[in-house]
Each structure stands twice: as structure tokens, then as C-alpha cells.
Amino acid sequence: DGDRIYVGSHEHFGYFMRSEDGTLVYSELSGLIEGYQMRNDEIWRILRISDKIIFQSFASFFVYDGVDVKAFPLKSVCLFFNVLGDRVLTSADEYGLVYVDINTGDLIKIPDVPFKSKLVSILQISESQSVFLTYSDGLFLYDGHRFTPFRTEIDRELPLWQPNNTIMNKDRDIVIGTNLNGSGCISRGGVLKWCLNNSNVLGCNTVLGMTTDFEGNLWMAMDGGLAMVQNNPSLTYVRTITPSVGSIYTVFYRKPYIYMGTGQGLYVGKIDDEQKTLSDVHPVKEVLGNVWYIK
């Protein structure tokens, strides 16, 4: 946030700033709390609303206004804090979807909510419309007054992937991070453009957070470290190849067919340039063993 990096951990939070020699120097904020004793608070979500920084734990949240820190015990179990305009929204176990009053700690129930599962993330896609990502009820469009289901090609699969965060990329597509299936990118029309997981390019399937840099590259924080996906609109990810072809050593393309030399022999498939799909993959029975070169 500007020249500060806000961080939180077990019963502790604050920020780093660079000194004149470039060293990151830590300043503690949790020590400014008065009238509240931390009891196993684990800071796991940090967000900005207006000129305030909010540190959320499972039992409480803390508001830093640039000078003081105020603590507010939560009146119900809340999972994800999200910002919508100048308000904080979350799902509370005993209330459903609520606004959080960051000045008093009160939870204000929102009426006529069409989904029952927990709110995971809010992504503002225009001045008047936002996308609400839920844990198991899919996505919804919200215009400030009413919710409308946002239908996508992955409505059936998404709850099984356990979504946990979302972000808009440089192309204004919606990228969803999940616990069990890496990340998936859908267009504003609900079409799945790609899915990255440990079956293709990622080291693991759990994507805990995402952000983009000034070049539009997508960065993902995962259980196994960091991954960066370059912003390249000409690049198409093939999610899976069926049947499994093993290790691919060489390829040769003669429209519309692609020939793949593998450790299991020679395979051929058909590429549809318009749909950007690979289909009808099958082995060439006459060629067995390792294929290193095709021309």
C-alpha cells in the first residue's frame, strides 16, 4: 500500500518500509491496541477501506487510521472480509451476508440474498456492478440493489474446486483461485479461457492469493511458493490431453494435425484454430518407443 507493506501473523501485525539504504524496517502496530487482550488471534486478511487499514483475524478485527489502532471482537464467526465501495461485507455464521460497521463492530444483515453459502470474494467489474464469488453457490452479479446469477461454463465444477479468491486480469477477465484446482480464468461472458493446476504448469493446486503487476502478469501465492503467469494473449494452455501421452519430446504441425513424439510412441491430434481446441488424440500404432524428432 504505497510505500508500506502491511503484514500480520499470530497475535502480531504491522508494516515494513524501506530505509534510505534500502533495508526493510518493521514497525509494529499491534502494540498500539488498548483495552483488548489478544487470545490466539491469527491475522489472515488485510484490506484497505478509505484511509483505514483493517487487519482481520477469526475472532476480531483491528482498524488502523494512520495514528491509532482500535480492536473490535467479532459477534459471530466471519470468514472473509471484502470491500464494496466504502463498506465491508462478510458472511457471518448466525446472520448470513452482513455489512460490518468498522466504527462500532456491529453486523448489519443484508436482506433478500439469493445464496446460502459463504461469500468468498467481491470483484468490482464496473462503476455500477460487482461479481460476488460464493463458496458453493457460484457467482452473482450485484448492482447495489439486487443479485442476478452469473452463469459460467464451470458452474458445476466450481464448488468442487473450493474457490477462495478472485482477481481481474489485464484483459478484464475474471481469474478465480481455488484450494483444489489451481486457478481458472473466465471471460465476462462466462466462458472458461484456461485452467492452470498441477496437471499442466503449476507445482500445486492450492492458490491462496493473487495479484497482477504493472505489465499485467499474474502472480499466484501457493502452498508451494510463488508462480507467475506472463500476460501473453497469443498463448493457449492445453489443460489435459486424453489419452495420456506421457512426456512429449518433439512436435510437428501440419494444419490441422499436430504430431507429438513421446516416450510412448507417436501421437497425432487435430487442432481447431477457431475454437483453439485439441481433439481426437490417438497413437500411431506403427510407431513405438521413444520419438525424438519429427519432420
Brief synopsis:
With 295 residues, the protein is mainly β. The chain contains one helix and 26 strands.
Strand-helix topology:
Layout: E1 5-9, E2 12-18, E3 24-28, E4 45-49, E5 52-56, E6 60-64, E7 69-73, E8 82-84, E9 87-92, E10 96-100, E11 107-109, E12 119-124, E13 130-134, E14 139-142, E15 147-150, H1 158-161, E16 163-168, E17 174-178, E18 183-186, E19 192-196, E20 207-212, E21 218-222, E22 225-229, E23 248-254, E24 257-262, E25 265-272, E26 277-283
Antiparallel strand pairs: 1-2, 2-3, 4-5, 5-6, 6-7, 8-9, 9-10, 10-11, 12-13, 13-14, 14-15, 16-17, 17-18, 18-19, 20-21, 21-22, 23-24, 24-25, 25-26
How many individual β-strands?
26
Order of helices and strands: EEEEEEEEEEEEEEEHEEEEEEEEEEE
Strand content bin: over 45%
* Largest β-sheet summary: 4 strands, antiparallel
User: What integer value in Å does the Rg equal?
Assistant: 23 Å
Rounded mean pLDDT is 91
Please list the strands of the largest sheet in the order they lie side by side: 4-5-6-7
Summed up, the helix count is 1
Helix/strand class: mainly beta
Gap between N and C termini: 53 Å
Low-confidence runs of at least 5 consecutive residues = none
Name the overall outline. Answer: elongated
Q: Kindly state the percentage of residues in helix.
A: under 10%
Structure report:
With about 300 residues, the chain is mostly beta strands. It has one helix and 26 strands. The chain has one helix spanning about 160; strands at about 5-10, 10-20, 25-30, 45-50, 50-55, 60-65, 70-75, 80-85, 85-90, 95-100, 105-110, 120-125, 130-135, 140, 145-150, 165-170, 175-180, 185, 190-195, 205-210, 220, 225-230, 250-255, 255-260, 265-270, 275-285. Strands 4-5-6-7 form a four-stranded antiparallel beta sheet, with no helix packed on it. Strands 8-9-10-11 form a four-stranded antiparallel beta sheet, with no helix packed on it. A four-stranded antiparallel beta sheet has the order 12-13-14-15, with no helix packed on it. The longest helix is centred in the middle third of the chain and has 4 residues, at about 160. The relative contact order is 0.06. The mean pLDDT is about 90.
